[in-house]
Amino acid sequence: VPSGTGMGLPAAVRDRVAAVHRGSALPERLRLYDGWAARYEQDVAALEYRAPYLAAASLAFAFPAPRAEARLLDVACGTGLVARELHRRGFRCLDGVDGSAGMLERARSTGLYQELRLCVLGREPLPAPAERYDAVTVVGALGEGQVPSTVLPELLRVTKPGGFLCLTTRSNPSNLRYKAELEAALGQLEQRGAWQKLLAQEVEYWERATSEEESTQGTGYISGVVYIYQKCPVPNLKEG
Question: Where is the Methyltransferase domain (predicted)?
């Protein structure tokens, strides 16, 4: 069991993480991410941020072989942490989108992506044709003050029938309202026959908490969830 609390995090790390989660206006938030890009990987390492690893492991588990030819879209790709984990599991055809040019520059330097595009999710559609991807991942960006849960149909649009969607959110107190909204939206799409839930895995030690209030039962960590959905192979006939 991990020891220590987020209170042991360097104050500067705590402040940077808190700033991007504060739900500031979009231009300001993108500016914060641009400024954070250079230190982002060090900061998330200090946070013991496990979402990229957990998401990639879950997707690989659900995904039928072979992986090398499968086309994946890494949404809100940041500096490429998720791509690194996917690459280690045999996925080779990765595209990424992010709202921050600074983050994309870092992602480009990894050499793991075939194509990287600037896209502010929730404001503009994904720069991809319908049914292009075998899997779509959104790791870490579905949260209060970040990407709205209204983007789900857009994620589905670019996924092939029978393709997979891997989404994550946090379960810390300040994100619970968002999480409830997200789960309601996920459920509605399932009822409409758009996709099927394969996995909803609650993970206790998601990352270190940045404050005592956010920590789960005084562990110093916050918990999170990985969801895996499969887009239904046939369109719902009722929609016509």
Answer: 73-163
